[in-house]
Amino acid sequence: SAVQHRLRNVQQIQATYRAFAALLADGSVVTWGNARDGGDSSEVQHQLKNVQQIQAAAQGAFAAILGDGSIVTWGDPDCGGTRSKVVQCQILNVQQVRGNACAFAALLTDETVVAWGDA
Q1: Cα angle for residues 105, 98, 88 (degrees, 5° grid)
Q2: Dist. CA 60–CA 73, nearest whole Å
Q3: 14-53: per-residue pLDDT in tens?
Q4: H, E, C per residue of 4-51
Q5: Which of 70, 68, 72, 91 minimizes the C-alpha distance to 83?
Q6: Is the pTM of this model over 0.90?
Q7: Hey, is 84 helix, strand or coil?
Q8: Potential cystine with 75: which of 3, 33, 45, 61 (Cβ 3.0-4.6 Å)?
Q9: Residue 4 pLDDT > 60
């Protein structure tokens, strides 16, 4: 694979039906596979720093929790991989994120839940 040489010190791996995302020890993320299903994170790669956790929505999107509690998503917009700054700015203070087939839900520090995608 074109990314094989970058897959060192992998801490976590997640998969959609046709793409993968690996969280590295330095807090960066490497993605590969079908671009629409999250295999291409180039549009958000500059934001994928100090990543604490990644989660997949199986039908084609990924979400990453950053060290400051914000979230970055990529992949199929219909499955929660929105590139909307409005959505991403509203989802702050994230403790956990979980994905199902085509959506995400985030547990916030104030014990509320925010969901997006085709939930």
Answers
A1: 50
A2: 11
A3: 999 999 999 999 999 999 999 999 999 999 999 999 999 9
A4: HHHCCCEEEEEECCCEEEEEECCCCEEEEECHHHHHCCCCCHHHCCCE
A5: 72
A6: yes
A7: coil
A8: 61
A9: yes
Neighbour tally for 103: CB within 10 Å: 18
Closest to 107 in 3D by CA, of 98, 116, 99 = 98
Token pair for 76: 């199929």
Per residue in 54-86, pLDDT tens? 999 999 999 999 999 999 999 999 999 976 655
* Bridge partner list, 22: 13, 30
**90 pLDDT above the threshold of 60:** yes
Spatial CA neighbour of 64 closest among 101, 22, 17, 113: 22
